[in-house]
Amino acid sequence: MSSENLETTPGGLLICPIPEHGLAPFLSHALRQTASIHKDYLAEVARRMVLEFTASASVHNFAEFNKTHFELDSSQVPCLNIKILVFENAAFAEGHSLNVWRPIDHAHGDYTGVEDHVLNWADNLVNLSTKMTIQVHLCRPWRDFGLLSAAMAPLRCPGIALKVTISPQNWVQIPDRYLAFHKAMTVMSIRRTSSSRVVCEYSL
User: Fold this and answer.
1) How far apart are CA 183 and CA 188, in angstroms?
2) pLDDT of 29
3) pLDDT attached to residue 204
4) What are 162-184's pLDDT values in tens digits?
5) Whose CB among 41, 79, 82, 118 lies 3.0–4.6 Å from 131's, allowing a Cys bridge?
């Protein structure tokens, strides 16, 4: 894998997309045959890279690969930098419906499978590692803050640091006078802190 083709974070970390099958591009065939050095190698990778997942299945498959080939359970995996793209189009076909701002007679996101989508992210992440910094990038808003908080609860534990970013182009239908409130509630629902800070970031 050539680092020249990877984007970088403002802090200089390389952003490494992980495909749905979970086999990270930095795991060459030779390394896959040498399980004894994988933990040290993965620790070095974790210092230099953000692993970007666009589907919860890819998190599951990456974790299973670590267990099966390298005998690393979640407590043995080194501290990882993770970015997840929640409600990304390819992984959540009903995502476009979350953008709409209009009166409805049910909770926002009902009948779309949105709760299961977020629960799958959380469940697969906690099975990956007990030590992570996770950037939860919301490609679209989900305004049922109670369910959002409950679905993200498994990630609020010692060893896991959470930060929240959004794709602002998909939040523009929320009226300006309500936008700051919705951003603050989104962060609080995910992190359960009083911080209202949310970073706007356009999708890569």
Assistant:
1) 9
2) 53
3) 29
4) 999 999 999 999 999 999 999 99
5) 79
Give the Å distances, CA to CA, from 189 to 71, 114, 164: 35, 15, 11
For residues 72 and 75, give the distance between their C-alpha atoms in angstroms, rounded to a whole number: 8
Place of tokens 């599951």: 60
Find, among 80, 194, 68, 188, the residue nearest to 126 by Cα. Answer: 80
Quote the tokens at residue 180. 């700051």
- Domain of residue 61, residue span: 3-200
pLDDT of res. 53: 97
Helix axes 114-126, 145-152, angle to 10 degrees: 20
Number of domains in the chain: 1
Q: Which of 152, 194, 200 is CA-nearest to residue 174?
A: 200
Q: Between 133 and 77, whose confidence is greater? A: 133
